[in-house]
Amino acid sequence: MKKEKGIHSLYAADPVRADELLWGRHTSGVSRRGFIKGSGLAAMVTALGASIPFARFMPGGLLPAALANTDTPFEIQGKSGLIILNDRPINAETPAHLLDDAVTPAERLFVRNNGIVPATEGTDPDHWTLRIAGESCLEPQSLTVAELKSKFRHHTLQLQIECGGNGRSEFFPPARGNQWTTGAIGCPEWTGVRLSDVLEYCGIADDAVYVAYEGTDRHLSGDPQKRPISRGVPVAKALERESLIVWAMNGEPLPLLHGFPLRMVCSGWPASVSGKWINKILIRDRVHDGAKMTGQSYRVPCTPVAPGTAVADEDMCIIESMLVKSLITFPKSGITHALAQPMALRGHAWAGDLRVRKMLVSINFGVTWQKASLKRPVNRLAWQHWSAELQFLEPGYYEIWASAEDESGNSQPVVLPGWNPRGYLNNACHRIAVMVTA
Ligand SMILES: Nc1nc2c(c(=O)[nH]1)N[C@H]1C(S)=C(S)[C@@H](COP(=O)(O)O)O[C@H]1N2
Ligand SMILES: [Mo]
């Protein structure tokens, strides 16, 4: 992956970039491998609007003539305006200005897959079974979605999910993995039952330590013995009122890419703990040791290290709460603005397990900061909306910086925070560019 310098929000907002990514200028991985198999082929078929009878003969990286010299962006079905970072597995992020809605619509929610999306479409969700077991489960049970719906009280909450690697693209030396800029965050409304109600129904033994999920997606290698991901949270986080097992997003059945028919949402932590397509929940008597729990995945050095340091696995600690962060969702970076007009500015802020207590914006590279007005979250762990009005004093190039502060007094750094080998937890201030004209 070629390392880009500069303001990440600028290229995240650039519609041409999706094409560049796909046709190889930036992601040699994508172009070399081509679109021949699996989800890659499906994506190309969607882009072309037709099947490709001779797909097996197509050279990797071939630009279909039908798409050559057009600005038709590659699209994932059900998504609109997302920037594709990888086609196998499918990973796509949302430009900041497309995250302006108070509640993130399905078509604007980022997609982060570690493996092959299971073919769960058409599954009768009432016949989907969730097995609750594990060493510390007193009475293991299998419950269908219909039973979950009938046995437990329903809850609807707006909960943010942010990938632990959101912002990775800015780290230097670069970290491997999807080069997320700012768009691996969203805050839809979820409906389901409390994880705690289900766990208590099955009995939690005194020695319980962790609650983990398994899903039905397959490992990229195709090996059925291997799991792409299986993560979890300590029991205390699982028992929070906001930790849910959900079947609906924004009042509709979960979209396939977001875990249809059943997923977990444990908001405020890396979204990798929010398992999709779940068919198993395990109450473990130890820290869960599933795929992407061990080694360097979703871990950061327990104590800060210099950029580029190799860190031994035993010196890496599991990421728990995410950090305070915010986005400017209006206006779009790169706009031109008339000097005489005040500029309306708005966005969202969130802080992992904590609440955001203050929001500041700057138009002079952080020399002075102006307080924005900040709303309360609709419920705990939902993002909070903020707005401000700016007045510019002379024409020229400006950057608007935004910085949130959480209830413990932590705020966002204006420079990159602690480098770590896998590029997690970048909560640097979001910046946008504005050209002010006389
Ligand atoms: N079964 C399963 N669950 C999963 C994943 C996955 O690959 N498989 N990805 C995780 C990661 S790393 C993230 S960031 C979120 C992304 O959720 P979304 O695709 O609905 O936005 O799902 C998590 N749950
Ligand atoms: Mo993630």
Give structural notes.
The chain has 438 residues and is mostly beta strands. The protein has three domains: 10-68, no CATH class; 105-165 and 185-318, Oxidoreductase, molybdopterin-binding domain (Sulfite Oxidase, Chain A, domain 2); 325-437, Immunoglobulin-like (Sandwich), CATH 2.60.40. It contains seven helices and 26 strands. The chain has a five-stranded mixed sheet with strand order 5-4-15-10-11. The longest helix is centred in the first third of the chain and has 11 residues, at 38-48. The model is unreliable at 1-35 (pLDDT under 50). The structure holds ligand MTE and molybdenum atom. Ligand MTE binds at residues 109-115, 161, 163, 215, 217, 228-229, 258, 271-272, 274-277.
Entry summary:
This protein is mostly beta strands and 438 residues long.
CATH architecture of the largest domain: Alpha-Beta Complex
Q: How are strands sequenced across the largest beta sheet?
A: 5-4-15-10-11
- Biggest beta-sheet profile: 5 strands, mixed
What gyration radius follows from the Cα positions, in whole Å? 22 Å
Structural class: mainly beta
Return the CATH class of the largest domain.
Answer: Alpha Beta
Strand content: 25-35%
CATH homologous superfamily classification of the largest domain: Oxidoreductase, molybdopterin-binding domain
Count of helical regions: 7
Q: What is the count of distinct domains? A: 3
Unreliable segments (pLDDT under 50, ≥5 consecutive)?
1-35
How would the global form be characterised?
A: globular
- Which percent range fits the helix content? 10-25%
Determine the CATH topology of the largest domain.
Answer: Sulfite Oxidase, Chain A, domain 2
**What's the count of strands?**
26
Arithmetic mean of pLDDT: 89
Bound ligand species? ligand MTE, molybdenum atom
